[in-house]
Specification:
The chain has helices spanning 2-19, 24-56, 60-92, 119-139, 146-149, 164-171, 204-217, 227-231, 250-279, 282-306, 318-345, and strands at residues 151-157, 181-184, 190-195, 241-248. It has a domain at 151-248: Alpha-Beta Plaits (2-Layer Sandwich). By secondary structure, it is α+β, with helices and mostly antiparallel strands. It contains 11 helices and 4 strands. The longest helix has 33 residues, at 24-56. Helix 10 runs antiparallel to helix 11. Strand 2 and strand 3 form a beta hairpin.
């Protein structure tokens, strides 16, 4: 996404220069030069966010940050150097690039939307969405997953390959656990099953109840294995049944939640300071961070409002945090590009 954005910015600026009547080589030179500051600012703000997440994040958040940092580095290299090399090579050979087709030549040209005149309508729409989102977050909350409330995880091996999706559907019914996460680990006959069923109850009877429910729901895949054989962890050379079982306590989940919160907050503070440094006015920084909060709160609100009746899981886990971080990245990217054009003209 970031790589495509960088190339789109470059091509749009080149097309803009061509529209001013410049020759092809001059338009390409000016287009790359004019787009460079937008590309660098947008990618540096996202890169700083990824760096903070890498330092303070945990688990999938750290993995997301690593992937994002690598992606930013490679996309900058390809957009600024490789794309330029290929375009210059083609033009120097005598080729002609229009940077548009017959269908897109006049697309989005001469559009004059007076956004500020319509700001009151935007205030009303945004205000309504924010009030609804915040109201739902405070009343309904979110469907928090094991990463944030704790839960029990069981590794089960089967004699034959099984579908993780089918098993999850069977376990997520109200009669069993209500919600469950099932992932294939290694071979297709090895599943990691996680559930937050009665996580606040620590008695041995509850652990036994979880194993019984698990056994009953998995009966079609166990080829007649008895419950005693299924749950026995002491048997040497065991090849089918429960292979491992452990619990993530709410206190550990709270630590993960707190680390995620501080990682996101820290990244926004760094972005605020960078934009202040680059654009010299605190209003730009405040506007960028406010836009991020606006986008994130509305996304959270949608999850809060709809998770009770959606036919699929809308559980909040660390993968969801990675998705929210993607929203933050694109929100910052778009905001910084707009700020850069404002700075260019004013």
């Amino acid at each position: 996404g970031m790589s495509v954005d960088a190339n789109v910015l470059i091509f749009e600026r080149i097309r803009e220069e061509l529209g001013k009547g410049k020759d092809q080589k001059s338009a390409i030179n000016d287009g790359f030069s004019n787009a460079l500051s937008s590309i660098l600012d947008a990618n540096i703000t996202t890169g700083l966010t990824a760096l903070i997440l890498f330092v303070f994040g945990t688990g999938p958040i750290k993995g997301f940050a690593t992937t994002l940092l690598i992606g930013i580095g490679t996309s900058l290299f390809t957009a600024i150097f490789i794309t330029r090399l290929l375009i210059d090579w083609y033009v120097n050979k005598g080729g002609k690039l229009d940077f548009s087709t017959g269908l897109t030549k006049n697309l989005f040209r001469n559009i004059n939307i007076e956004f500020l005149k319509k700001r009151k309508v935007a205030y009303i729409i945004s205000g309504a969405l924010l009030i609804a989102s915040l109201g739902s977050l405070f009343t309904n909350g979110l469907d928090q997953g094991i990463d944030f409330v704790g839960g029990r995880t069981t590794q089960v091996r089967f004699a034959e390959p099984v579908s993780a999706v089918e098993v999850e559907e069977a376990l997520a019914t109200p009669e069993v656990f209500g919600s469950a996460s099932v992932k294939t680990v290694g071979d297709e006959n090895n599943l990691k099953i996680s559930t937050k069923y009665k996580i606040n109850e620590t008695a041995n009877e509850v652990d036994e109840e979880v194993r019984e429910k698990l056994y009953n729901a998995l009966q079609p895949y166990l080829n007649g294995q008895s419950f005693e054989e299924f749950k026995d962890l002491s048997k040497e050379g065991k090849e089918v049944g429960i292979m491992d079982q452990y619990k993530v306590s709410p206190s550990i989940a709270d630590d993960i939640k707190q680390a995620s919160f501080w990682a996101v907050l820290g990244s926004l503070v760094v972005v605020f300071l960078y934009i202040l440094f680059r654009f010299k006015r605190w209003q730009f920084s405040l506007g960028a961070v406010a836009a991020v909060f606006h986008d994130v709160i509305i996304v959270l609100g949608v999850f809060s409002i709809t998770y009770k009746f959606m036919p699929f899981s809308m559980e909040i886990d660390q993968a969801f945090i990675a998705a929210i971080l993607t929203v933050i990245g694109y929100s910052l990217n778009d905001t910084v590009v707009v700020f850069d054009r404002i700075r260019e003209f004013f």
